[in-house]
């Protein structure tokens, strides 16, 4: 039974292996199964890889740039598509160094509508993710875009992009992770289901993993 084999490998790896590593081991044993099926079985049984021990701050709120009011007030429900988006930056460790991932998620469907990756945590990183969201959703206007108050989101470059597309900026209170809980939850699931327990030799390897998780697995389920 597949679930028995998965649990056996999970235990042998001392709960450190995620779906990708377990899938590779199954393939080595001659069990041709997709990583997404393994991830679903692990999720159904609550078998989660232990959290990585490397942490990297992604928010720099110690700046003097203007900040926006909190328009969501922890209300993460939406009545229609393109009503409310949330955005954040997370990170992946590779042998070449950090890889940063900016994500934009529609709160109505929880679909990731925009994302971008870079080895540097810049304003361009979050702008590229937002540009993808605008392209993918055919440039809707009047959308509330919520984020933390990090310097990337407060930057002139990002704020100009919001103004260009007629978007409404909303920001969390300083240091309150609950103000962007929907995005924090996605980040956690992404780390558990795709990254934790894995070792990436290069940023290119990590980028491939991110693409597969978002576009092949998450957005299709």
What does this structure look like?
- By secondary structure, this protein is α/β, with parallel strands linked by helices.
- It has two domains: 1-50; 52-221, Nucleotidyltransferase, domain 5 (2-Layer Sandwich).
- 41% of the residues lie in helices and 16% in strands.
- The chain has eight helices and five strands, in the order H-H-H-E-E-E-H-E-H-H-E-H-H.
- It has helices at 2-12, 19-28, 35-45, 123-136, 151-154, 156-165, 181-195, 203-217, and strands at 84-94, 97-106, 112-118, 144-147, 168-171.
- It has a five-stranded mixed sheet, with helices on both faces.
- Helix 1 (2-12) packs across helix 2 (19-28) and helix 2 (19-28) packs across helix 3.
- The longest helix is centred in the last third of the chain and has 15 residues, at 181-195.
- The radius of gyration is 18 Å and the shape is elongated.
- The chain starts with a helix and ends with a helix.
- The mean pLDDT is 89.
- The CATH topology of the largest domain is given as Nucleotidyltransferase, domain 5
- Rg calc: 18 Å
Mean pLDDT: 89
First-last Cα distance: 24 Å
**Count of alpha and pi helical runs:** 8
Q: Quick one: how many beta strands? A: 5
What distinguishing features does this structure have?
221 residues; alpha/beta; Nucleotidyltransferase, domain 5; 2 domains; 5-stranded mixed β-sheet; 16% strand; elongated
Map the helices and strands.
Layout: H1 2-12, H2 19-28, H3 35-45, E1 84-94, E2 97-106, E3 112-118, H4 123-136, E4 144-147, H5 151-154, H6 156-165, E5 168-171, H7 181-195, H8 203-217
Parallel strand pairs: 1-4, 4-5
Antiparallel strand pairs: 1-2, 2-3
């Amino acid at each position: 039974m597949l679930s028995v084999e998965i649990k056996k490998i999970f235990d042998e790896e001392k709960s450190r292996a995620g779906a990708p590593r377990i899938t590779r081991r199954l393939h080595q044993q001659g069990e041709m199964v997709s990583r997404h099926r393994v991830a679903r079985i692990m999720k159904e049984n609550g078998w989660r890889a232990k959290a990585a021990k490397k942490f990297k701050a992604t928010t720099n709120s110690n700046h003097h740039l203007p900040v926006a009011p909190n328009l969501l007030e922890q209300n993460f429900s939406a009545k229609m598509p393109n009503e409310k988006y949330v955005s954040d930056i997370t990170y992946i460790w590779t042998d070449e160094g950090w890889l940063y991932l900016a994500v934009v998620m529609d709160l109505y469907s929880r679909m990731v509508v925009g994302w971008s990756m870079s080895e540097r945590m810049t304003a361009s990183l979050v702008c590229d993710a937002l540009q993808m969201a605008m392209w993918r959703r055919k440039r809707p206007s009047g959308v509330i875009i919520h984020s933390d108050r990090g310097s990337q989101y407060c930057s002139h470059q990002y704020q100009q992009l919001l103004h260009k597309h007629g978007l409404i900026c909303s920001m969390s209170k300083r240091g309150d992770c609950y103000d962007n809980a929907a995005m924090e939850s996605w980040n956690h699931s992404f780390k558990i289901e795709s990254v934790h327990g894995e070792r990436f030799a290069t940023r290119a390897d990590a980028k491939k993993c991110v693409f597969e998780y978002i576009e092949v697995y998450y957005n299709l389920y």
